[in-house]
């Protein structure tokens, strides 16, 4: 069963080995363990609903609380510390676009506000419930998960927008297809959520970002239905799909998504290479991506992340062997950076691409160490978030912040993000273990994905929120001042909304506000997300 | 010097060989030659300008007429028959974004309407000048052609939006880079025009459509400046670049375009293959594009286009040899379809991709005939439009219509487009020589590009316009009824505006109208383009 106050299925736990705990103790100090609130205690705080008696609306505290929070750090500590939070006043479970239409119309008539709910995996506060006087209805799309149509001739699959990764892939795989979209949240996040937050998956190098996979569909807005027909490409005016992508529930609700799928690849494998230092590793990946080799993944860890990953992996024998081998091949152990590389193609193309990538990497001092670590990565590709549970149980908090920036600023921004966090914690007399990888590479630049592990603060919810706020602001300011986007793959939500004007500019923000007013003249849709203030 | 009433430089002419003329005579009848109007006669019809005396505004008839028409068939016959047309009342030649800003502000204050002008190559009526009472100012961007900045670290080039293909490529090539965007109009069309009409180039398979190449820039709108910063990718809300792409002068003027450029490829070559029939050829190209082989171009001609191209090429010896060779290799001569295939990469990748493509084509009966025809294609890649001049001199009109549609409808729509034209001409007692190729291939579907050659009608401008209107409407209706987009690469303009609601839907059209009102509250920008009626 899904954990109510942590990541994932409660039948699955990850353990931290002794070396990992020793590393954390050395780097940030002994963990500060806290006691979790019980689900009963938080449910007891849910107030009575003004929607009581409304036909078809679930007003149970359990249903309402379950859609009130996502997986951001603030949401996480609200659950762990059992803080009372505003929750939607009712939840509905539409099964069709017509039912979504019905609830939007009803909300408009009644003056309710509406928050669409997909998989609840937002890490940017997309589910924050306003505390105002208007009733809030949660549109839970968890019953819209079906593969409605598969057009094999055009390789287009029409899916219920609430389909989470495994449900979606299982239905496609039965026909020999894959969407190829694998964000780390894959187990719970939904295709509709991916589209409206502009998500990107681990193998986007082959399959593209969600923008490239989203071909059309059905979008229900307060003022009517936007039907997006499918074309392979078009020059017929502005592309209206782009108003759905990134709309984050402000303009309407995506109910059916037509997605570009692919035949399952004949061959897929993941491979590890090590580089002596960041400079050479970055030069290699930049060249790899610009050579347009048909790879499916490039994922470059900086030296601290490489060390962290090896420590977490915990196979002392493997690591000893690896370090001996790297030393023998001329790759010094200290600053080594690991590159994980994926190929997904027909056997011949995959072999050629891998060979070309190895050849090119060698010119930058890269040492290929084979598939063993790649296999391990693949087996654990969605398990990273489970470690957050384990860390919390050991008294540590974990958070991630990501961006994307043009190549000349990748290294400076990566360093600035880690340093900004260290500085923010230092003011508190604390330390943070910060490490980073590049997960989505482009000719122009790269995403930067940093993880921050630090001790839980004593004193409960408020000091922990304060600690997070300070460091999050510092890192976000570093991103903005280096010309990075406030999010490469997690969207804006509430948490990133203050930083959006820096990249959209005044006219851009006014345009987004105008689109809100256009699609949602009564201002009922997902208030406060994307745009900080209700644009009216 | 550029021809005033036909395509291209008047120092360059194409000839039609006897076989080609015989083919046309057999297929549509003897050409009906007409006498062209003189430039003097059309300039004499230009009325006095209400902008006389405005500082910095060129009101000469020559300047005004030269920006009044593009290269669509209606525009072509207006020039050839010397018809009086509404022309802008003045032309300005801004050299900077600030000067564009100045003219937009001035137009707003004075109640003038504004038509931006790039290379004048529109084939969809993007330059149509309204005949109303408000003065019309043409913003001619031909002095904004410089490479303003080249950031080699991120492979981003900032260009004046008025830079035409050769000027742009020459500046990039001096540094070892290419944009890789080669539409057939390359010699005259501009980077700004490519962006605002969502253009696609011949090698989009490698370099992407203009949407993928456009990273950001500066967009001057009547209500202010939209600055689009560059990110390799972003999930921070709707992508505002997408409102510039396809805006066709309705929302503002792109003044500086930041484009993603690439190092010049180590190797580039073009190769021809022949398939016994359309079915096998289509199956092969579908598989080629879905295999994601690193090719730079796929261009498949149907049997009539293949025959036409071979006849035009006119090398009787080559064709005899080719047909004998194809027969010996088991590829029957009658229905053969030619595939032109490009590779642009490092030598090794290019060789591997070509070998894979040949192997895969062989499985579908494809016969590889080497580089000779590919070299010929490359040499003439931008010369196709020159033939239109020659055909006209022989008494024939040539026009093209293009779309894109999902794979299951590619062949039916291709046939329907050609048949719709044949039917429309038959009602007139005329015949049309119609042939088609697929030039931009996607996993989901393909563009369809049809050429129509028919006799000039006797009786001057009116019957020729009427003949075109009837056939254009029939073919456009075939496109819409088969679920194709009204344009894959030429945009909407005036000519396609009536068909836009079929794909955007009522809410989509209302949204575009709302965006017009937002960016252009006084309705001064490029009236009648994209949206048929002024949206107010």
Unreliable spans of chain A:
none
CATH class of one domain in chain A: Alpha Beta
Q: Which CATH-level-2 architecture of one domain in chain A?
A: 2-Layer Sandwich
CATH topology of one domain in chain A: Alpha-Beta Plaits
In whole angstroms, the N-to-C terminal distance of chain A is 42 Å
Oligomer: homodimer
Secondary structure class of chain A reads: alpha+beta
Placed side by side, the strands forming the largest sheet of chain A appear as 14-11-13-12-16-17-15
How many strands appear in the DSSP assignment of chain A?
17
Describe the structure.
The structure is a homodimer of 536-residue chains. Chain A has 536 residues and is of the alpha+beta class. Chain A has a domain at 267-379: Alpha-Beta Plaits. Chain A contains 19 helices and 17 strands. Chain A has helices spanning 18-28, 39-44, 61-66, 73-80, 97-110, 165-173, 191-196, 204-207, 210-213, 241-244, 278-290, 303-313, 316-328, 347-362, 372-379, 384-393, 410-427, 461-481, 500-519, and strands at residues 90-92, 113-117, 136-140, 147-151, 156-160, 177-178, 214-221, 224-228, 253-260, 262-263, 267-275, 297-301, 337-345, 367-370, 396-406, 432-438, 445-455. Chain A has a 7-stranded antiparallel beta sheet with strand order 14-11-13-12-16-17-15, with helices on both faces. In chain A, strands 4-5-9-7-8 form a 5-stranded antiparallel beta sheet. In chain A, strands 1-3-2 form a 3-stranded parallel beta sheet, with helices on one face. In chain A, a hairpin with a 6-residue loop joins strand 16 (432-438) and strand 17 (445-455). The longest helix of chain A is centred in the last third of the chain and has 21 residues, at 461-481. Chain A is globular. The two termini of chain A are 42 Å apart. At the A-B interface, strand 8, strand 10, helix 14, strand 15 and strand 17 of A face strand 8, strand 10, helix 14, strand 15 and strand 17 of B.
């Amino acid at each position: 069963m899904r954990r109510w106050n942590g990541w994932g299925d409660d039948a699955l736990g990850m353990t931290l080995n002794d070396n990992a705990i020793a590393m954390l103790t050395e780097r940030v100090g002994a963990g500060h363990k806290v006691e979790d609130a019980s689900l009963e205690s938080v449910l007891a705080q849910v107030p009575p609903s003004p929607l009581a008696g409304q036909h078809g609306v679930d007003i149970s505290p359990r249903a309402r609380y379950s859609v009130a929070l996502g997986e951001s750090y603030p949401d996480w500590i609200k659950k762990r510390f059992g803080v009372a939070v505003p929750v939607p006043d009712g939840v509905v479970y539409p099964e069709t676009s017509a039912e979504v239409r019905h609830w939007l119309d009803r909300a408009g008539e009644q003056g309710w506000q509406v928050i669409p709910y997909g998989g609840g995996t937002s890490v940017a506060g997309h589910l924050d419930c306003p505390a105002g006087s208007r009733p809030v209805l949660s549109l839970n799309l968890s019953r819209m998960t079906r593969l409605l149509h598969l057009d094999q001739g055009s390789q287009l699959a029409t899916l219920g927008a609430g389909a989470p990764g495994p449900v979606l892939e299982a239905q496609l795989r039965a026909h020999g297809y894959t969407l190829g979209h694998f964000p780390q949240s894959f187990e719970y996040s939904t295709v509709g959520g991916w589209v409206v937050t502009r998500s990107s998956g681990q193998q986007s190098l082959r399959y593209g970002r969600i923008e490239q996979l989203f071909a059309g569909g059905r979008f229900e807005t307060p003022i009517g239905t936007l039907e997006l027909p499918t074309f392979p490409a078009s020059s017929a005016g502005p592309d209206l799909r782009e108003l759905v992508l990134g709309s984050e529930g402000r303009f309407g609700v995506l109910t059916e998504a037509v997605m570009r799928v692919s035949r399952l690849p004949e061959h897929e494998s993941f491979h590890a290479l090590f580089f002596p230092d960041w400079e050479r590793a970055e030069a290699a990946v930049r060249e790899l991506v610009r050579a347009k080799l048909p790879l499916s993944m490039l994922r470059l860890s900086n030296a601290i992340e490489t060390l962290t990953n090896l420590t977490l992996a915990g196979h002392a024998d493997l690591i000893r062997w690896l370090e001996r081998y790297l030393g023998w091949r001329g790759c010094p152990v200290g600053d080594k950076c690991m590159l994980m590389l994926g190929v997904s193609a027909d056997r011949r193309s995959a072999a050629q691409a891998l060979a070309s990538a190895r050849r090119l990497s060698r010119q930058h001092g890269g040492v290929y160490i084979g598939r063993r670590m790649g296999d391990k990565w693949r087996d654990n590709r969605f398990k990273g978030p489970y470690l957050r549970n384990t860390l919390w149980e050991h008294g540590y908090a974990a958070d991630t912040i990501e961006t994307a920036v043009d190549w000349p600023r990748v290294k400076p921004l990566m360093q600035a993000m880690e340093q900004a966090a260290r500085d923010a914690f230092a003011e508190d007399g604390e330390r943070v273990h910060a490490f980073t990888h590049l997960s989505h590479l482009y000719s122009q630049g790269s995403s930067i994905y940093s993880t921050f592990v630090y001790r839980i603060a004593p004193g409960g919810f408020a000091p922990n929120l304060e600690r997070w706020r300070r460091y999050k602001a510092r890192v976000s300011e570093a991103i903005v001042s280096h010309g990075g986007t406030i999010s490469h793959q997690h969207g804006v939500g509430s948490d990133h909304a203050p930083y959006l004007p820096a990249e959209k500019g005044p006219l851009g923000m006014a345009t987004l506000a105008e689109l809100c007013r256009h699609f949602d003249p009564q201002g009922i849709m997902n208030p406060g997300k994307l745009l900080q203030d209700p644009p009216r």
